[in-house]
Design brief:
Number of helices: 1
Low-confidence stretches: none
Mean pLDDT: 88
Strand content: over 45%
Number of strands: 9
Largest sheet: 5 strands, mixed
Oligomer: single chain
Strand order of the largest sheet: 4-3-2-5-6
Order of helices and strands: EEEHEEEEEE
Distance between the termini: 15 Å
Helix content: 10-25%
Shape: globular
Length: 131
């Protein structure tokens, strides 16, 4: 799970179909370091500073059970000039298939945000998953 398109932090939470506790489990907070858009050393500096000081990472991971619904919630809330930026929570539910690798991306677009699931089993063929 990762964020893209902005530098606001995103908190990801999950819920598995068989979890007896129906509350969402917080996985952690991610932030887009700019990798691929800024010089590599700047992205690395952003990643180190975020992970060491405020426990924000480039991505978080979770294991999902094949054939069982998997729910992901992404939520962004941060201070900005003149107030607070909030987007979400956005919730996505999908059923993973055995042997597949998925990526959940919380995308910022101007003042709006959206969350999508992609099949990245073949890294060069990122395919949008219906949810």
């Amino acid at each position: 799970m990762k964020a893209s398109g902005g530098t606001h932090p995103v908190e990801f939470s999950i819920r598995r179909a068989d979890d007896p506790d129906r509350r969402m489990e917080v996985l952690g907070t991610v932030v887009d370091s700019g990798r691929g858009h800024v010089f590599g050393w700047i992205a690395k500096l952003n990643e180190v500073a975020n992970s060491a000081t405020v426990k924000r990472f480039p991505q978080v991971e979770a294991q999902a059970d094949a054939g069982k619904p998997f729910e992901i919630s992404g939520y962004s809330n941060s201070r900005v000039t003149g107030g607070i930026y909030t987007c979400g929570p956005l919730t996505t539910v999908f059923t993973p298939e055995r042997g597949k690798v998925y990526e959940v991306e919380f995308q910022f677009s101007g003042e709006h945000c959206e969350q999508h699931v992609y099949d990245v089993t073949q890294p060069r063929q990122r395919t949008l998953v219906k949810s």
